[in-house]
Amino acid sequence: MNYRFVTSINKNEYDAFVQSSPYVNLLQSYDWALIKHNWKHIHTGVYKDEKLVGAGLVLIKELPLKMSMFYIPRGPILDFKDKELVRFYFEELKKEAKKYHCLFIKFDPMIHVNDYKSYEANDNKYKDTDLYLNIFKEIGAQHHGFTINIHESVQPRFISNVYNEEGWMDNLPKHTKRLIKDADKRNVRMICGNAELVDEFSRLVELTEERKHISLRNKEYFKLLMDTYKEDGVIFLACTNVYQLNEEASKKYEELMEEKSKTPENAKKKLRRLQDQLNSISKDMNEYKVILDEFGYEDQDIAIAGILSIKYGNTCDMLYAGMDKRFKKFMPQYKEYVENFKWAFDKGCIWSSMGGVEGTLDDGLTKFKDNFNPTINELIGEFDLPVNKMLYNLSQIAYKLLKK
Fold first, then answer.
1. Which of 42, 117, 122, 133 would be a feasible disulfide site paired with 7, CB 3.0-4.6 Å?
2. Cα separation of 287 and 282, whole Å?
3. What are the counts of helices (DSSP H) followed by strands (DSSP E) for the chain?
4. Alpha-carbon span 192 to 341, nearest angstrom
5. Which residues form a coiled coil (predicted)?
């Protein structure tokens, strides 16, 4: 075999190889090492007859007692059916790992075991699943199983993904199209930008954190993403002008009141209809007043929801989203998700991932994402390759503490 293992690769060569692979994904991009700056890293590769045939961004995390762990997020990138190549890569990586007193190598490759719509979920795994499992077993890797819950693995095993297929817009559920029209009626408009939108986007994420009692990321992290991926990063903000909406509602209210005053008392059906409309507009105006009291009675746009996405190669990942719950009735997320898909597909992406969901496919996140008719990508899962077998079991305790 004319294989050669390296721990340093030119960025252009590395990204060109990863982006041409069917296993391409953002977490194996060359620059993801800059995002994970609190980890050390190496850009590994395998050359065969001086041609690059395998690559992997390896993140290195220090553990107690001067030990470490290696993690290859959604990688490595190589032909997993090539047993000799897989064996060579991991044998050489283990040699490198020992220099860092590494206890184990964790990896979760982008190998699909099944793809389906959430409403037709099934247990028919791809025929090659056993082939992959056997190859990894032969090199000594331990499979964590076909986990179901998101918290059971570092990266979600089930991904909700919208593909750039002909007619994808037409195939959106009817209620999604209706909700987008509702957003249009509320004058929801989209702003598309980059680092200049980080401040507003961060505000919306903070509101989401408070509402859901979760911890996401801060403004500095979002700016790092935008600065690192530049034109391949995008922030969509859904905005509306509540001042104008209130003005329009006030004008409509006066028109209805005038029409009602001219309607004869015996036209009871029409009077009921007019009163229902007045009640509805009055309710809207009361909601607008609460918002204007806080944001000010000015003719201005207000950002009410946002998404941050990164394009890498011919893929797009929607990484973070935030929304001001006071504008829930404006349905901004439906419009902005579709605009994000359009942006990705216009740039040549074959899919745009909305991120992970629970494997039960019955949680609220899955149901929301189902509004966009996604495909569920079920991945093979997580593996550990022990480097120091004697200390591996103890390392699992340390790893769980680190994970918390």
1. 42
2. 9
3. 12, 16
4. 13
5. 239-291
H runs (alpha helix) in 165-240: 174-185, 198-212, 219-229
Q: Cβ(47)–Cβ(6) under 8 Å?
A: yes
Identify whether the C-beta of residue 307 lies closer than 8 Å to the C-beta of residue 298.
no
Share of the chain above pLDDT 90, in %: 82
Measured CA to CA, the distance from residue 257 to residue 280 in angstroms comes to: 13
Model pTM score: 0.90
Tokens (6 digits) for 289: 């007043």
DSSP code at position 191: E
In angstroms, the Cα distances linking 220 to 29, 203, 365 are: 20, 12, 26
pLDDT tens, residue by residue, 150-161? 999 999 999 999
Backbone angles phi, psi at 2, to 5 degrees: -100, 50
> Cβ–Cβ contacts within 10 Å for residue 224, how many?
17
Does residue 59 contact residue 36 with C-beta atoms inside 8 Å?
A: yes
DSSP string spanning 235-280? EEEEEE-HHHHHHHHHHHHHHHHHHHHTS-TT-HHHHHHHHHHHHH
Q: 123 pLDDT exceeds 70?
A: no
Structure tokens at 36: 């994970």
- Specify the 3-state DSSP secondary structure of 116: strand
What distance in Å separates the CA atoms of residue 96 and residue 262, rounded to the nearest whole number?
Answer: 87
Nearest to 222 by CA among 239, 238, 201, 236: 201
Q: How far apart are CA 400 and CA 64, in angstroms?
A: 12
